[in-house]
């Protein structure tokens, strides 16, 4: 019977050998090819570092610390590639028997900790905002559900993107900062988001 260490070693080696960031299902794969190779190498280097740390099995804090180092290398990745990265990290968590990233992956991808309340996440978000962003977020409190779209359009200009219920204003494409307005139903919610940094949401009305 193989030991837990040996089993994890075998699974890690299979993980490293597997092709990554290739097109499958609805995912079109990383473009260009050179970037695909680079992204695959970054994930494999993470797995190799964890492999070299054995035996014994790395602790959860050690694994998550390695994750954090790798996540920083993907801060400029687009949303689809980011989702693929999280799939690979979740696979590594399964290999090590880790059930939760303690909010690490969710904070990196969406800018909030799912274990915290909206108010707690908003406080964290405000601490990460620039002065201009903080002033804008503070102005959300005066918005009314029935006039929010008109007032935000007067302040920010026409929305950059419109769907059935959601309006999106891109404030800074380089920093990936945006305002969102979800017109429900049932709730009208305005948000100020900066990719990889924070997500701030305010419900308008009751």
How is this structure best described in words?
The chain is an alpha+beta fold. The protein has two domains: 4-108, Up-down Bundle (hypothetical protein mp506/mpn330, domain 1); 111-204, no CATH class. Helices cover 49% and strands 14% of the residues. Strands 1-2-3-4-5 form a five-stranded antiparallel sheet. The protein is elongated. The model has no long low-confidence stretch (mean pLDDT 92).
Q: Which short descriptors sum up this protein?
A:
206 residues, alpha+beta, five-stranded antiparallel sheet, 8 helices, 49% helix, elongated
Quick rundown:
By secondary structure, the protein is an alpha+beta fold. The protein is built from eight helices and five strands, in the order H-H-H-H-H-H-H-H-E-E-E-E-E. Strand 3 and strand 4 form a beta hairpin.
The total count of helices amounts to 8
Describe the oligomeric state of these chains in a short phrase: single chain
* CATH overall fold name of the largest domain: hypothetical protein mp506/mpn330, domain 1
User: How many domain units?
Assistant: 2
The low-confidence parts are none
- Overall outline: elongated
Mean of all residue-level pLDDT scores:
92
* Gyration radius, in Å: 20 Å
| Topology order in helix (H) and strand (E) letters | HHHHHHHHEEEEE
**SS content category:** alpha+beta
Would you identify the CATH H-level superfamily of the largest domain? Uncharacterised protein PF16133, DUF4844
Profile the largest sheet.
5 strands, antiparallel
Q: Give the termini separation.
A: 60 Å
Sequence of strands across the biggest β-sheet: 1-2-3-4-5
What percentage of the residues does DSSP assign to strands (E)?
A: 5-15%
Q: Say how many strands there are.
A: 5
CATH class of the largest domain: Mainly Alpha
CATH architecture of the largest domain: Up-down Bundle
Portion in helices: 40-55%
């Amino acid at each position: 019977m193989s030991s837990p260490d040996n089993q994890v070693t075998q699974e890690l080696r299979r993980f490293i050998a597997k092709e990554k960031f290739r097109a499958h299902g609805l995912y079109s794969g990383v473009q260009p090819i050179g970037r695909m190779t680079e992204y695959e190498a970054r994930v494999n280097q993470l797995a190799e570092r964890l492999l070299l740390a054995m035996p014994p099995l790395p602790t959860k804090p050690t694994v998550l610390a390695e994750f954090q180092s790798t996540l920083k290398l993907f801060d400029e990745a687009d949303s689809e590639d980011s989702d693929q990265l999280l799939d690979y990290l979740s696979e590594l968590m399964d290999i090590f028997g880790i059930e939760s990233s303690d909010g690490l992956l969710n904070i990196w991808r969406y800018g909030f900790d799912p274990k915290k309340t909206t108010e707690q996440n908003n406080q964290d978000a405000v601490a990460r905002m620039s002065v201009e962003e903080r002033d804008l977020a503070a102005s959300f409190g005066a918005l009314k559900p029935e006039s929010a779209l008109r007032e935000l359009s007067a302040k920010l200009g026409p929305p950059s993107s419109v769907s059935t219920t959601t309006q999106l204003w891109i404030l800074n494409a380089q920093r990936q900062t945006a305002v969102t307005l979800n017109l429900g139903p049932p709730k009208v919610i305005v948000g100020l988001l900066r990719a990889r940094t924070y997500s701030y949401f305010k419900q308008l009305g009751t």
